[in-house]
Design brief:
mainly alpha, binds zinc ion, cell membrane
Length: 122
């Protein structure tokens, strides 16, 4: 499958992971400014903010996870979680949809947006 798209939960999770790394890098960067206490403090606080932000994102993932629907992927037969009307399989990137109307259509994230659903209803 040539879908250049990863499952939403996976995407958010890697974003949170990136935030943690960014936080550590920034905090580590602070060590280079040892002579300047104020600068070092700024770096440390900045790093801490990144790490706190990732905690928030992880919390958000937890909230989102309660709204996901567990489905069995028709392609690889593994249970995967999906969010919204369209998503992709966490394992094989198979596009999945809950809406029979969208079945067989080319995968597009726009089907998840509120704007699109409104247009469709009218
Ligand atoms: Zn799959």
């Amino acid at each position: 499958m040539g879908v250049k798209y990863s499952s939403k939960i996976n995407k958010i999770r890697s974003f949170a992971l990136a935030l943690i790394f960014a936080g550590f890098i920034v905090m580590y960067g602070g060590i280079f400014f040892r002579e300047n206490v104020i600068l070092m403090t700024i770096f440390m606080i900045l790093g801490l903010i990144f790490i706190l932000a990732s905690t928030v994102v992880y919390f958000w993932i937890g909230m989102l996870s309660t709204r996901t629907i567990q489905v069995v992927c028709p392609s690889c037969q593994k249970p995967t979680k999906m969010l919204g009307r369209v998503d992709v399989c966490m394992y094989c990137k198979e596009p999945l949809t809950l809406d029979p109307e969208l079945e067989g259509k080319e995968f597009d994230e726009k089907y998840n947006s509120k704007k699109y659903s409104k247009v469709e209803k009218s």
